[in-house]
Write a structure and sequence with these properties.
The complex is a heterodimer of chains A (265) and B (289).
Chain A (H helix, E strand, L loop, with lengths): L5 H30 L1 E3 L7 E2 L2 H8 L1 H31 L4 H12 L6 H11 L11 H25 L3 H9 L4 H30 L2 H6 L7 H11 L2 H31 L1
Antiparallel strand pairs in A: 1-2
Chain B lengths: L1 H6 L13 H22 L9 H8 L1 H34 L5 H13 L3 H11 L4 H10 L12 H24 L4 H9 L4 H30 L2 H6 L7 H11 L3 H29 L8
Helix pairs in contact in B: 2-13, 3-13, 4-5, 4-8, 4-10, 5-8, 8-10, 10-13, 12-13
The chains are: A mainly alpha (265), B mainly alpha (289).
Chain lengths: 265, 289
């Protein structure tokens, strides 16, 4: 405790709590309110309606949500496989190449997403790798953007694993693949779930690269939210933002349950 | 080599050093190859490499304005994140209010939400017909909105500071949890006032986390796209927005590639700063990377 007097504590709270609520509570509350607003010409909306939600699930937006979720799941799964593979394989290398390659796997996180999107357009707009206009290019852009974060999470997890479990398995004669499947990966499970969750959340909210490369048939939810708010359909944009946030949080919550279970085992 | 191969013990328990090849090749094809092509295209369309496009773009007002906005916004937003993050973390860790744990959880979830959520909310709160302006217009009996900062650089800075403060708070809260509470109790029982304790005990201990969190924020704000696009202010164009405009709206790939090269160099510079910060100051992997 830093402030001992009761009045002092209340004074600190009187400043910090309202500030906190204005900065983090108010934006979410306002989006939620806007998503059920019929008309908002006054300080508060004049009447409330669920029409925007009904619209969202009837129109193209539902397809966009599906595109977003599929993109998130596939790109995160691919990043998880490649990131885990890289993290495991790097353990076998000598310190210098290991450090260099470690840096290499981290670098995509430092490159602006718009530039990643531009790179996709420049590289994959002609044969033999003609991917422009397909949904695959969106997946690849997402994969590149999240791969560093997945790799980072798995590497951090690996460095925290108890060393002896794997050594015991080895001394008992477990072959490498058996050891990987029955010892290393199960121990790593909570970190794998955490890595997947982070990638999925990032992919769901990704806009910069997607807006550069998306084909008409694979519009993700953030792209549609931008299009709506650009057109002035700001209530519909708010509704879709709520749906996007809720879908992301539901998946994250489910994954964190899975992670706790894995931890208990 | 042959002798070595015979005498070296067979790597029976390891994955072997060639196992790194598949993920490495994948990343090289999907990331390095496009990056190389961006650099190639920035040096001209034809067979001969030329720096003409560079000279033209770097000399243009549009680019210089974009660069200036990007840097000012990134520095402003990072300063905001550091200040806000330090104050919030201090209160949550050392003057915890009922529900402080919940508050820090809420901030954590903010990391998972898309950045443009905040911008969209700001239109409803601070926009010309938003909550705040409507209320002020009622109070002051005027017809014009008194606050008009949202569609300026300030609006972008405020939105980005809100979005990225959690990235400072995560490492800060972690470093605060390592401070021995007894140290603070002893200091205050010896008569040190809270401000002095913050300055002499908490701030030095939190410095590595502040540097790591701050440089991460700087990197993220330099690359931020969604917030600036959603605010849509004509006068506030940053480098990522300029790249988008050139490539998608004007189909001018060469110019877009030149700006992208500059933006990537800037980002990689900041990323090295971040890596050096976490390596030398031992702040750990500051929450995200």
């Amino acid at each position: 405790m830093l402030v001992w007097s009761k009045t002092g504590r209340f004074a600190v709270w009187a400043v910090a709590v309202p500030l906190f609520l204005v900065i983090y509570g108010l934006p979410v509350a306002v989006i939620a309110l806007a998503s059920i607003s019929g008309q908002w010409n006054d300080i508060l909306p004049s009447h409330l309606t669920l029409a925007h939600y009904a619209n969202a699930f009837r129109s193209d937006s539902f397809t966009n949500l599906k595109s977003s979720i599929w993109t998130g799941i596939i790109a995160s799964a691919a990043a998880l496989v490649s990131g885990t593979w890289a993290a495991l394989a790097l353990r076998e290398l000598k310190p210098l190449p290991k450090r260099l390659l470690d840096l290499f796997f981290f670098i995509p996180s430092a490159v602006p997403s718009v530039s990643v999107g531009l790179g996709m357009l420049v590289a994959f707009s002609h044969r033999p790798l003609l991917l422009n206009g397909t949904w695959l290019i969106v997946l690849i852009a997402h994969f590149v953007l999240i791969s560093a974060f997945t790799y980072g999470n798995v590497t951090a997890g690996l460095s925290r694993l108890p060393n002896d479990c794997e050594q015991i398995a080895e001394s008992l004669g477990a072959r490498p693949f058996y050891k990987l499947r029955r010892v290393t990966l199960p121990l790593l499970m909570p970190y794998l779930v955490a890595a997947f969750s982070l990638s999925f959340a990032m992919s769901m909210g990704e806009l910069g690269a997607t807006v550069m490369v998306y084909p008409p048939g694979w519009v993700t939810l953030p792209v549609n939210i931008f299009a709506l708010s650009d057109r002035g359909a700001i209530f519909d944009a708010a509704t879709l933002t709520m749906i996007l946030g809720a879908a992301t949080l539901i998946v994250l919550l489910a994954l964190s349950r899975l992670s706790t279970k894995a931890m208990l085992r | 080599m042959a002798e070595l191969a015979v005498t070296a013990p067979a790597p029976k328990m390891t994955l072997g050093r060639f196992w790194i090849a598949p993920p490495l090749l994948l990343l090289a094809l999907l990331f390095l190859y496009p990056l190389g092509l961006i650099i190639r295209q920035s040096l001209g369309d034809g067979e001969v490499l030329s720096s003409a496009a560079f000279a033209e773009v770097l000399g243009s007002h549009e680019f210089r304005d974009g660069l200036r906005h990007t840097i000012v916004i990134a520095i402003g937003a990072t300063a905001g994140c550091l200040l806000l993050g330090f104050v919030f973390s201090l209160v949550i860790a050392f003057v915890p209010f009922p529900g402080a744990k919940l508050a820090s959880r809420l901030i954590d979830t903010f990391v998972a939400l898309p950045t443009f959520l905040v911008t969209l909310a700001f239109t409803f709160i601070y926009g010309s017909a938003g909550l705040l302006n409507e209320s002020l217009m009622r109070l002051m009996h005027t017809d014009l909105p008194p606050l008009d900062f949202l569609y300026s650089q300030w609006g972008v800075i405020l939105a980005e500071a809100t979005v990225y403060t959690p990235f400072v708070m995560r490492p800060l809260l972690a470093s605060f949890s390592l401070i021995d509470q007894a140290q603070i109790e002893v200091a205050s029982s010896l008569g040190a006032r809270p401000w002095r304790i913050v300055r002499q005990i908490i701030l030095p201990a939190a410095l590595p986390a502040l540097v790591a969190g701050g440089s991460l924020c700087l990197l993220l704000t330099v690359n931020e796209f969604g917030v600036v696009l959603f605010i849509g202010a004509k006068g506030v164009i940053t480098l990522p927005l300029l790249i988008y405009g050139k490539a998608i709206q004007e189909f001018d790939y060469t110019t877009a590639c030149v700006i992208a090269v500059v933006n990537i160099v800037l980002s990689l510079g900041l990323y090295s700063l971040y890596r050096v910060a976490i390596a030398h100051l031992g702040a750990g992997r500051a929450g995200v990377v």
